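Hi Q.,

Before the meeting this afternoon, I wanted you to have the flavin-adenine dinucleotide prediction in hand. No need to reply - just skim if you have a minute. The sequence and ligand are here:
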Amino acid sequence: MAARKPPLALRALSRPKLSHRCSRRPPTTLSPRSSSTQSAPKSSVDPTEVSHFSNLASSWWDPAGPSRLLHLMNPLRHTFIQRCLSTASQSASPQRLRYLDIGCGGGIFAESAARLPGTASVTAIDPTAEVLKVAEVHRRRDPRLMEPGRLTYVNTSIEELAVPRAEEAYDVVTLFEVLEHVADPAPFLSTILPHVKPGGWLVLSTIARTDVSWFVTNFMAEDVLGIVPKGTHDWRKYVNEGELRKWFAGQGWGTGGAMNVMGVVYVPGLGWREVSGSERWGNYFFGVKREA
Amino acid sequence: MPPRLRLSAQRAFISTPSTHVCLRLRRFASSSAATPEIYDVVCVGGGPAGLSLLTGLRNSPVTTGLKIALIEGQDLSKSRLPENASLDSFSNRCSSLTPASVKNLQEIGAWSHASAARIQPYHEMQVWDGLTDARISFDWDSARSMFSPRNLAQSTTIAYMVENLNITTALQNRLAELGGVDTFSSTKVESIELGQDTEELDLSSWPILTLSNGKTLAARLLVGADGANSPVRTFAGIPSRGWDYARNGVVATLKLEGPGRGGPDHKIAYQRFLPTGPIAMLPLPGNMASLVWSTTPERAAKLKSLQPEDFAAMVNAGFRLSATDLEYLHTLSSGQVEEIEWRKQHTTTNEPSLPMTVTAIQPGTVAPFPLKMRHADTYIGERIALVGDAAHTVHPLAGQGLNQGQGDAAALVHTIEEAVKTGQDMGSLLALESYNSARYATNNAMLGAVDKLHKLYAIDSGPMIGLRSLGLRTVDALGPLKAFFMKSAAGGA
Ligand SMILES: Cc1cc2nc3c(=O)[nH]c(=O)nc-3n(C[C@H](O)[C@H](O)[C@H](O)COP(=O)(O)OP(=O)(O)OC[C@H]3O[C@@H](n4cnc5c(N)ncnc54)[C@H](O)[C@@H]3O)c2cc1C
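Predicted structure with the ligand bound:
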C-alpha cells in the first residue's frame, strides 16, 4: 500500500513556529528588503500555531514520540553547517563559534550545538513560553549544558531581540523548520540579517512548495500516515530554494559561491539521506554567508 | 522449552546485599548525593571487550576529549602475560581471533603490542563427524573458485590462535601509551543507582556508581563490559534469555609429538563432533596446541580427575576411537593409557588426516567451564550499552565469543564518534540506536547458527545422523559455498 513507499520528502518535522503575521497569505514571492523591513510587528506569534505546539511539548524529547523525525534529522544539520563553514572560508573562522538558534523549540538543535567542542556559546530563542520551559527542564539533565554561558534560552521573538553591533553578532545563525510557518518571509528574514556577523553564516532548513510537497506533508504525513500531528503544516507558506537564492543575492549576501543548498529525503528504515536535486520538491537546507 | 532467566526490571543493582554492605552504602549514599564525579563514559569490566572499547575511544581523534573511567574488579596487572614468558608454556584460555578482529586491533594500534611469537596463525581446518566420519576440510586453496586465479599475495590465514592474556596485555599496553583513562583496578562496583534531581542538576537519568573504594561516579554512558553475569545489565533491567547446554568445555594446553602434519608453516585446526559435543584441537606455536572438549559435566569431572598420561591418552582417543569406546573409557577411574593402546590396535585410523599425538599435558591447565547460550533482549538502554559477554554468551564450538565482543566494541566506538561529531548526548537512546542495530542481528544470527550446529550434532541415533553426514559431504563438494562458510568463520574479512 501507499504507506510502504512514501513520501520521498516527508515534511514530518514538528516544532513551534514563529509566525510573522496571523495572515495566511502564501509567500509566492519574496519582496525586496526595502518594501518590508519596517513592517516587522512586535507580536509575531500566530496563536493557532502556539496552541498546537504547546500540546506537543510534553513529548518533545521522547525518541519515539511525534518529534522523532526531527531528532533523526538533527545530525544532518551539523553536517550541513560544517559544509558551509568550510565553503569559501578565506579568513580563518574563529576558534570557537557563537550560535544564535531562532525558533529553538524544545532545544534539540540548541543542545547539540552547545555540546560541540568547537562551540563558544549558544543563544536559543523561542517566543513560546511552554516549549522553552521544556527546553530549560531538559537542559538540566546534562551538566555540560549547565556550564555558565554555554547555552542560554531566551523567551523572545527575533523581532524583539536587540540588534547587536556588527562585531558582537553571531558566527552562525540558525533557523530550522521555521520559514514554512511564517506568513511573510521577506520581512521576517530581514529582521534576522543584522544578527549574522560579517563573514558569518545564516543556515536554515525548510521545504519547497510543490505539488509533491503538498501531497507528502499534508496529505500523506498528516492525513494518511498520521506520523505528523494534523495541523502542523500550512503548505501555502512553503518557500522555494530559488526564491531564497534570488532574495539573498538581492541583499548582496552569498557572493562568490558562498550559498549552499542540500536536499534531504526521509527513507523509512534508513533515516534521512541527502538526495541532490530533492531541494526542488522536498525538504532542504539552505546556507548563505554574509560578506566579511 | 528452554528455561527463561528471571526478569529483573529494577533500575538498581546492589552486589552483595549483606548488612555490612548496606551500612557502607548508606554512608556512600550521602557523599554521592553531594558530589559524584561526572564522566562521559564509565566502563565496567576490563576484559577483552572493555579494553578494546576504551582503546578505540582513546585512539580516535574525535573522542579523545571524553572523560573516561574503567572499573575492573580483578587486579589488571594479573591479566597480563609475565615478562619473558616461555614459549614452552601457554595459558589454557586461548581464542581464535578472526582477521576482522585482528584488523580492528591493528587500527586501534594494539596489535603491534601483542607478543608475536605467541600468536599462531592457522591455514586449514578439518571438521568431521565422529559417527559417520563425513568430513569438511577448510582451506583457502580448495575454497577458491577455479575461475579466479590464485593470488599469491592473498593471505591464506583462516584465523589466529592467541592467548586471551596476550590480547589483554596488548590492549593494556596500548591504553597505557594513549593514557587519559581513570583506571580503578581491583575495585568492584558495589552499587548502581539513578542520580537525583537537585536544584542545580537533574541526574535522575544518570547511573551513579558506588565503588568499593568509596568513590562515586556519574555516567553519561555506562558501558557494561562486565561479562556473562553483568551487573550493569541487571541494573538496566535488560533480560537475558537462553539456556544451559548441560555441557562443560574442558580446556587444556597440550604438547604434541611435533609441530603438526603441515609443518610449522601450515598449521591445521581439528574439530570432531561427538554425540556429547565437539572436541577441538587448535594449533599454538611450536609443538603446542590448545584443547576445547565440550562434554557432559560428569565426563568433564572424570577427565579432570585423571592422571596427566591418562588424560593425554583420552584426548588422543577422542579424535580416533568410536563413541562406544569413549563411553566405556569414561567409566574407568585410571588405566586409560593401556586400555586405549589395546583398542587402537583394533581400530583403523587414517593418521595423516588426524591431529598429531598428544605426548604431554601442561601441568595445571585442565579446567572445565560450564557452557551456555544467552542473549540480552537489547544492547542499549537510557545511558546504557552492553558489549561482549554481557550482551551475549555463545557455545565455544565456533570460537566466536571473544570476536563478537571485539565487533561490539568497534561498533560502539563508531556510534560514540558520530554522537560527538553531531553534538548528540551519547547516552541518549537516540544516539545509541545505531549501535544496537549494527550489532544485534549479526550476533543473533551467529548465536542461532552455533546453537543449531550444537543441537544437530548432539543427537546420536536416528535419521539425523544420515542427514548430517550428507550435509557435511555436500558442503565439502561445493567449493564456493565452503568459501562463504569460511569467510564467515574468518569474520567476513
Ligand atoms: C571454554 C571456553 C572457550 C572459549 N573459547 C573461545 C574461542 O576460541 N574464541 C573466542 O572468541 N571466544 C572463546 N570463548 C569466549 C571468550 O572467552 C569470552 O567471550 C570473552 O572472554 C568475553 O570477554 P568480555 O570482555 O566480554 O568479558 P570477560 O572477559 O568476562 O570480562 C568481564 C570483566 O568484568 C569484570 N567485572 C565483572 N563484574 C564486575 C564488577 N561488579 N565490578 C568490577 N568489575 C567487574 C570481571 O572481573 C572481568 O574482568 C571461550 C569461552 C569459554 C568458556
